[in-house]
Amino acid sequence: MKILILRLGHRAGRDPRISTHCGLVARALGANGIVYSGERDRKLLESLKKVMKEWGGSFEVSYEKNYMSLIKNWKGKVAHLTMYGVPVQNVIDRVRKEKNLLVIIGGEKVPPEVYKIADWNVSVTSQPHSEIAALTIFLDRVFKGKELGKKFPEAMKRIVPQKSGKKVIEK
Amino acid sequence: MKILILRLGHRAGRDPRISTHCGLVARALGANGIVYSGERDRKLLESLKKVMKEWGGSFEVSYEKNYMSLIKNWKGKVAHLTMYGVPVQNVIDRVRKEKNLLVIIGGEKVPPEVYKIADWNVSVTSQPHSEIAALTIFLDRVFKGKELGKKFPEAMKRIVPQKSGKKVIEK
Fold first, then answer.
1. Out of B15, B129, B145, whose CB is closest to A25?
2. Which residue from A98, A139, B96, B99 lies 20 to 30 Å from B79 (Cα-Cα)?
């Protein structure tokens, strides 16, 4: 299953860390790429690409100003993560059957047309929390927890898990 | 099981949104409270308390400058979430047996003494991503997904899940 994340409404001044975390989580938990919309932010893309290079794998990062055109031209289904949507546990079996999935995560205000065009508006609890947590649970449910063991080929850095302390192997 | 989150190294200027998300996620996914350390940030605590009031439940938010004293005086086990630790899937069955658990999530640099004093240093993948995602998976594994249906009594606002659009009931 190929999953692309679309992060709406990035604001370079206010959101750099949240948007960076969205990209890192998308990569670590098995998505294939992330597209940022909102303000163009070269530093954000560069810092993510640096991580990809150091830690391996083939995750793709890009920017797209016209996100509605990206959504309309997407060859596959579209899931929009929102606290107002249908519980993830109710739709995930259906979602998992798709080959190509676009997962939209919002910024502050998501326009109504996104709710309308999405095949699924999906909630991870109906409580206010975090697009990062929503994305995390969503990907975890799609991959049934197997994403936690994902390998990242051609990494320059690799961690060897330790009971205490840090062990990093560098090529 | 009672779970308290300890968020280390908050920086008022740089981290307001990440730290806010940590608190919101802790609450939404079933923890009992969060303690912030690092810089004292009254706005952060106030904005979280406002959410608690509106959305219900009994989650507790506070600040503690001397986090080592809090850890040392904790009556129960301590789990520290770090990408360098042992995979969550290897320790979670043991963790779930505890009655009182302190879960530490780091800021930029976590001092070595935290690694030493923790009963478990726990990783959620050994990839760089987000303390918000690590906390999310950790709580989800502790509660086996049941936290997604958690109720929040005495809420002033409540969402009714919709296939499209938003429905909020306000008291």
1. B129
2. A139
Q: Which residues contact B94 (CB under 8 A, 6 or more apart)?
A: B120
The answer to whether residue A63 neighbours chain B at the CB level (below 8 Å) is no
The SS3 assignment for B87 reads: strand
Helix axes A131-142, B16-28, angle to 10 degrees: 50
A20-78 pLDDT, tens digit each: 999 999 999 999 999 999 999 999 999 999 999 999 999 999 999 999 999 999 999 99
Of B25, B128, B129, the CB nearest to A129: B25
Q: Which domains does chain A have, with CATH numbers?
A: 2-170 (3.40.1280.10)
- Are B84 and A129 within 8 A, CB to CB? no
Tokens for B7? Answer: 């968020």
CA B135 to CA B102: how far, in whole Å? Answer: 12
Q: φ and ψ at B64, to 5 degrees?
A: -140, 115
Q: Is the ipTM of this complex over 0.85?
A: yes
